[in-house]
Amino acid sequence: MGLVEDIKKNIDLSQYKGIKKVVLAYSGGVDTSIMIKLFQDVCGFEVIAVTLDLGQKEYSNVDKKSIKEKAEKLGARHHFIDAKREFITDYAWKAVQSNCMYQGAYPNSTALARPLISKHLVEVAKREGAGAVAHGSTGKGNDQVRFDVSFMALDPNLKIIVPVRDWSLMRDEEIKYAQQKNILIPVKKDSPYSIDANLWGRSIECGILEDPATEPPDDAYEWVALPHKAQDKIETVKISFKKGVPTEIDCADGKFTDPVEMVERMNTVAGRNGVGLIDHMEDRVVGLKSRENYECPAALAFIFAHKDLEKYVLTREENDFKPLVDKAWGDLVYRGLWYSPLMKSLNAYLEASQEYVDGWVKLKLYKGSMRVVGRSSEHALYDKLLATYDKGTTFNQKDAIGFIKLWGLNTVMANKVRK
Ligand code: ARG
To answer: Does residue 199 sit in helix, strand or coil?
Structure first.
């Protein structure tokens, strides 16, 4: 029996009654290509395939055309949506303001894109009068959670179909079906990894990487030079911020102010200096632990610089408190709750907290290392005349004597009483 008959036998098709069109998040890869055909063969749906350009290097101009052609050849209508700028200004820049780093290691590059992709799919579904939306996630990962929750929050009337999960698709059966149906298998040599990429980073999973003890092979990385192979030259990058958002980078390649260009350029500059590699054990939403590898040069550099600037301009109390909000924000992103009420509240705090985060930070990059070598801000709470040990300081050291007596009072008392 073929795959189509198998699926028909095992699922209840009546759940799709009344649905004529499905909007599919289409990457151009094997799985989502097979889905275009399956939706026609199994459900008789008209398929509208949607691909978002989020700056994936994989989608060069040539590839973009071939993705569209491929979808259309398989019988779908296809929309390419350029969402690069929106992704940076509405998602990545907020991630900078919140120093977003899930479990202290992962800048949520894949996670951040999911609510944006979902939003565009729902818009297309509305325009097209489609009754269902679909994506190529499995039932084991985080992405299904992020897509499904976003879809349900944005339009609870849409039916969500996740074929790999809902129809229990098996990879070998899929491939057999693809061969029968003449669905083109990627022309490029098959990567042994599962890749997801956008301007904020590149996620690398599967294959040999599933063994946490094994070092990732050199070929797993495409954006970041291995530190020992990186150029033997120190590079300086000056990053300017306005209200916690990057407004310019000034580096050896020139000055850049366009949001998309800034991120692209920072990926290149930090990447060629070996900065941006991440290898960590991650706790997924569904309870699994997984070994994850990422290349996120721009994300790491922007956040590193932004954190430094915050320390310079925020009060001690703000600097102590904000990391709690930052962590909560990053956890919501990771866990697919972009459209939750708490996210709205946290965004309000974030925005308020960034009012005075203006200025610049200078980074030096060299063979995998990154350090701050200077910063400047008109809102700095640092005052050289207060801090200096030289003559002419405005800080009265004698004030410290009374302060210390009261500061230490509890400790001194406790030591006396508890002898
Ligand atoms: N573990 C990361 C996350 O949950 C990366 C997921 C990568 N997704 C993929 N389809 N390869 O955000």
So the answer is: coil
CB of 293 shorter than 6 A to ligand 1: no
Rounded to the nearest angstrom, the distance between the alpha carbon of 233 and the centre of ligand 1 is 33
Residue 113: the pLDDT is: 98
- Ligand 1 center–CA 81 separation, angstroms: 21
Q: 58, 193, 203: which to mutate for ligand 1, most atoms within 8 A of CB?
A: 203
For the cut 50, the answer to whether the pLDDT of residue 187 exceeds it is: no
Please spell the DSSP secondary structure of 151-169, one letter per residue: HHHH-TTSEEE-HHHHTT-
Using the mean position of ligand 1's atoms as its centre, give its distance from the Cα of residue 202 in Å.
9
326 lines ligand 1 (CB under 6 A): no
Instruction: Output the CA 140–ligand 1 centroid distance in Å.
Output: 11
The atom number, within ligand 1, closest to the CA of 141 reads 4
Q: How many other β-carbons are positioned within 10 Å of the β-carbon of residue 380?
A: 15
Whether residue 342 contacts residue 328, with contact meaning beta carbons closer than 8 Å, is answered with yes
Separation between Cα atoms, residue 382 and residue 319, nearest integer Å: 14
Distance CA 164, CA 116 (A): 22
CATH of 3-187, one of 1.10.220.30, 3.40.50.300, 3.40.50.620, 3.10.105.10: 3.40.50.620
Q: What integer pLDDT is reported at residue 246 of this predicted model? A: 99
Q: Which atom of ligand 1 is nearest to the CA of 204?
A: 11
Residue pLDDT, tens place only, 4-23: 999 999 999 999 999 999 99
Ligand 1 atom with the smallest distance to the CA of 290 is 1
Domain map of the chain by residue range?
A: 3-187, 196-314+356-376, 384-418
For residue 119, which of 141, 87, 163, 88 has the smallest C-alpha distance?
87
Looking at domain 196-314+356-376, its CATH architecture is Alpha-Beta Complex (3.90)
Residue whose entry in the numeric block shows the structure tokens 């029996």: 1
pLDDT digits (tens, 9 = 90+) for 298-350: 999 999 999 999 999 999 999 999 999 999 999 999 999 999 999 999 999 99
244/358 Cα distance (integer angstroms): 6
State residue 63's pLDDT score. Answer: 82
Cβ-contact 164, 139 below 8 angstroms = yes
What is the chain's mean pLDDT, rounded? 95
